[in-house]
Amino acid sequence: MILKRTSTKNVEEFLQKNQDFFVKNPWLLEKLEFPSKIKDEGNQSKIISFKDWIIENLKNKQKSFIEIAKHNYITQKKIHQSVIDIVKKKNLDDLFFYLSHELKQIFELEIISVVTSDESFAKTYKQILISHKQIASIHQGNHNLIMDATDNNFGLYDNVNSKIYSNAIFSLHQELFGNPSLLIFGSKTDNFLSNKAYDLINFFSLVFENKLKSLINE
């Protein structure tokens, strides 16, 4: 009788159909070898036991959780201070100077700006001016926030010297200018690809919108 060699695919299919296999045969785990994420001196992957593989993965997850928590804590402190600073602004000139200069340095971003089709407003306060049609194609409904890689087809950063890699785009309420408008945060890194601090950015955007509305209506 000719024995047919078991292929990797056969093993995969068997394990998929018998997901409790290692529960019933735990002793096999002691015999198996797993690749380590840590490289040895020869630049080859180390082979480790299942127990060490589990421990290594738990350590990596814990490290990731700690890094995310640290990032959120630092961002939270910056957001809270920025909210306090914004609430104290007495006029639109001070508000937009803070937004476009001081705030982008605090958050280490390339640009923070309101995007509007109101030419007079954009020129007066040095904010981004694009057509109503362009903004309407981006605006996702009042108070919607998206964080993603930059889409250069929108033309948001055509006049920005640095290349913007990722951005957060908050759709301001249409009643603010009578037309769709945006609040954008642009970064030359992948800051906005992981949705880190999503709630904090959304909170800041709402506070900024309320302050802007109150100053416009004064």
Written account of the structure:
The chain is α+β, with helices and mostly antiparallel strands and 218 residues long. It is 46% helix and 18% strand. Helix 3 runs parallel beside helix 7 (198-216).
Question: What attributes characterize this protein structure?
Answer:
single chain, 218 residues, alpha+beta, Beta-Lactamase, five-stranded mixed β-sheet, two-stranded antiparallel ribbon, 7 helices, 18% strand, elongated
Detail the topology: elements first, then pairings:
Layout: H1 8-17, H2 21-24, E1 33-39, E2 45-49, H3 50-87, H4 92-106, E3 111-116, H5 119-125, E4 128-129, H6 132-138, E5 145-149, E6 166-172, E7 181-187, H7 198-216
Parallel strand pairs: 3-4
Antiparallel strand pairs: 1-2, 3-7, 5-6, 6-7
Helix pairs in contact: 3-7
Write down the Rg: 26 Å
CATH class of one domain: Alpha Beta
Number of strands: 7
> Could you tell me the strand content as a percent range?
15-25%
Q: Which structural class best describes the helix and strand composition?
A: alpha+beta
Sheet with the most strands, sense and barrel status: 5 strands, mixed
What is the helix content? 40-55%
Unreliable stretches, pLDDT < 50, 5 or more residues? none
CATH topology of one domain: Beta-Lactamase
In short:
By secondary structure, the protein is α+β, with helices and mostly antiparallel strands. The protein has helices at residues 8-17, 21-24, 50-87, 92-106, 119-125, 132-138, 198-216; strands spanning 33-39, 45-49, 111-116, 128-129, 145-149, 166-172, 181-187. It is 46% helix and 18% strand.
